[in-house]
């Protein structure tokens, strides 16, 4: 069985350098050195230690899932799909909530690695944060080198197995629907600025405005929850009273918008995004962009539990419009 010294000799680096790369140290190292060490690990079928040998074996039952907040209906549905596949495969699921804190996400990846999980699924959006992305890639690569498997949901700054919802096209679809109804001035309740999900959905809405020759949507940023959606609705309408429609970039914020509009007795179209279960039950029933959330979770867990592939597997998930009573032509 190959040793760390064997890997170092094959790669032409010191044992200390090889160890840092294999174990995901935060100390900077050139891409060329990293590639040589990773190639040596693959060529020699090196398994770092007894911990990793156990990880690579078939007797491990736990899998780790990192989400932003499992109480959020979006993540609750995704987790339902993840657990369905994991349970069928006889796995115990360890769920970690990051509450959209990148540092906490890095800590959980390390913790799950220490717990020797057989696979990890990162179910939350990617971040616009170069330092975070670099650190995450290093930690996940070290985990994979020791035999672990990784899959992600959403657009992340890494190469690997992924389930990617078509958020940009969904955003375009939402704008297209509102403009086709005759709306000219629309507001957008966006999620946190640092999330790729927010960027992609907002990019689609802006593309729809350009396509229809309409003014750029007015944007208020919120926190992907009901209360911040209600507050953002109030801010948009006080600053831009001519708005006749609002696109919320998730259903929770759309529900908050509907609640605010009901309280002030204002007639404004509202469209959401995700089609969480409550969307059909609110009054008026919520028009939204549907993503098959539970299926996305199931797809990601299936990727994570399947043998590694020489090439990254990326499963693209289309969005669809679900038209209900919350959108209508503007009052003339």
Automatic annotation (TrEMBL):
<dbReference type="InterPro" id="IPR010982">
    <property type="entry name" value="Lambda_DNA-bd_dom_sf"/>
</dbReference>
<dbReference type="InterPro" id="IPR046335">
    <property type="entry name" value="LacI/GalR-like_sensor"/>
</dbReference>
<keyword id="KW-0805">Transcription regulation</keyword>
<dbReference type="InterPro" id="IPR028082">
    <property type="entry name" value="Peripla_BP_I"/>
</dbReference>
<protein>
    <submittedName>
        <fullName>LacI family transcriptional regulator</fullName>
    </submittedName>
</protein>
<dbReference type="Pfam" id="PF13377">
    <property type="entry name" value="Peripla_BP_3"/>
</dbReference>
<feature type="domain" description="HTH lacI-type">
    <location>
        <begin position="2"/>
        <end position="57"/>
    </location>
</feature>
<dbReference type="GO" id="GO:0000976">
    <property type="term" value="F:transcription cis-regulatory region binding"/>
</dbReference>
<dbReference type="InterPro" id="IPR000843">
    <property type="entry name" value="HTH_LacI"/>
</dbReference>
<dbReference type="Pfam" id="PF00356">
    <property type="entry name" value="LacI"/>
</dbReference>
<keyword id="KW-0238">DNA-binding</keyword>
<keyword id="KW-0804">Transcription</keyword>
<dbReference type="GO" id="GO:0003700">
    <property type="term" value="F:DNA-binding transcription factor activity"/>
</dbReference>
